[in-house]
Amino acid sequence: MNSFKDIDGKDVSFESKSDLELELQRDIISKEITAYLVCCNGCWYKVTKTVFEALDEMR
């Protein structure tokens, strides 16, 4: 079993990296990244850039 922490410090468990969907949220004008999002078990979680990058490397 694996887990990651969301932006609020909540532990989110997952069994496989295939359970995760990663998405960047961007400002529609500047195109700057405004949030790092992870979908796990049908729920979206806001995470830090560090967590997002670590999860992305796992996939």
Structure description:
The chain is an alpha+beta fold and 59 residues long. It has one helix at residues 49-58, and strands at 2-5, 11-14, 20-26, 33-40, 43-47. Strand 3 (20-26) and strand 4 (33-40) form a beta hairpin. The two termini are 15 Å apart. The model has no long low-confidence stretch (mean pLDDT 96).
Structure summary:
The protein is of the alpha+beta class. The chain has 1 helix and 5 strands. The chain has a 3-stranded antiparallel β-sheet, with helices on one face. A two-stranded antiparallel ribbon has the order 1-2.
Summary keywords:
59 residues; 5 strands; single chain; 1 helix; three-stranded antiparallel sheet; alpha+beta; two-stranded antiparallel ribbon; elongated
Secondary structure: elements and pairs:
Layout: E1 2-5, E2 11-14, E3 20-26, E4 33-40, E5 43-47, H1 49-58
Antiparallel strand pairs: 1-2, 3-4, 4-5
Count of discrete alpha- or pi-helical segments spanning 4 or more residues: 1
Beta-strand content estimate: over 45%
Unreliably modeled segments: none
Q: How many beta-strand segments?
A: 5
Q: Radius of gyration, Cα only, in angstroms?
A: 11 Å
The amount of helix comes to 10-25%
The backbone outline, from C-alpha atoms, is: elongated
Structural class: alpha+beta
Largest sheet: 3 strands, antiparallel
Distance, first to last CA: 15 Å
